[in-house]
Amino acid sequence: MLRGKDATLAAIIETILNEEPETQDEIAKKLNISRRYVAKLLKPLIDKKIVMHPYVVDIEKLSKLEIYHSIEKPIFHIIDLLDKMGNNVLYNLDKVHNALKTRNIEDAKSVIFQDYTLNKLEEEVNITLKMDNLKYLPSKQTALLSKIASNIERCGDYLSNIAEEITKGLYIKEYLHEDIDEIFNITKKMFSIAMDMVKDGKASFEIYDLEEELHRKLEKIMKVLSEKEECKTKNINYYIQFGMFLKDIERFGDRCIKIFETGREFHHGLLGEDSRK
């Protein structure tokens, strides 16, 4: 925890990031300190062109200083948008599951329509990343946030694909109900864990165990399906259609891992399964 002049400097930098003041007097008034003290604390950063006038911060340069880790960064609106995208995906995941079980075509059509909302949210994320108070965010962090949004949007695409197949007749035969319930529960857990990492930097490595479990379940379902349907001519269309559905579920799970790992790299500078601790 920062104390003394370091805490005051952090508050000055946060004021610049959030309010883009024109003068040191504005900063001093906001923090109830003297303009002279503001000038004294800012001088080393101004000399290194970390802080520039009119008062903006080059976060790329600032990120190399220890104080950067204690500063409230101007990304909360982005995280909020990513959270909205995630909630949209979870809502449609439940809706697709229900549509499969009940053959509810209207629910399936609703999921397809909701994909437009997800696309617009992704666009909003990328536009917001170009706004003034984020223009000095380190380019790597900007790229990671954009990548997270892209992967969440792709999860929505897979649900939309499944919903479209439902409108074309895809349904779950009774002998598969329990297995399908299980894979939807697994994917929901995986996506929730991935979004917890994005929102709060909270790491739960259960996601890797769930990924392995998902692949085992998918292989089991395909085996059961091939045995039951025997790939007879009259059943071949169902077999192919169901196989496409399972492939979309597999891809959804893969995207969950990508969201988790990109979120981990964003919050902690760590990437991939090999860096688990």
CATH topology name of the largest domain: Methane Monooxygenase Hydroxylase, Chain G, domain 1
Instruction: State mean pLDDT (0 to 100 scale).
Output: 87
- In which order are the strands of the major sheet placed? 1-2
Instruction: Count up the helices.
Output: 10
Structural class: mainly alpha
Strand content: under 5%
| Residue runs with pLDDT of under 50 for 5 or more positions | 273-277
Q: In the CATH hierarchy, what is the class of the largest domain?
A: Mainly Alpha
The rounded Rg comes to 24 Å
- The helicity comes to over 70%
N- and C-termini, Cα separation: 24 Å
Total number of strands: 2
Going by CATH, the homologous superfamily of the largest domain would be Phosphate transport system protein phou homolog 2, domain 2
Order of helices and strands: HHHEEHHHHHHH
The number of distinct structural domains comes to 2
Described by strand count, sense and barrel closure, the largest sheet is:
2 strands, antiparallel
Instruction: Write down the overall geometry.
Output: elongated
- In CATH, the architecture of the largest domain is Up-down Bundle
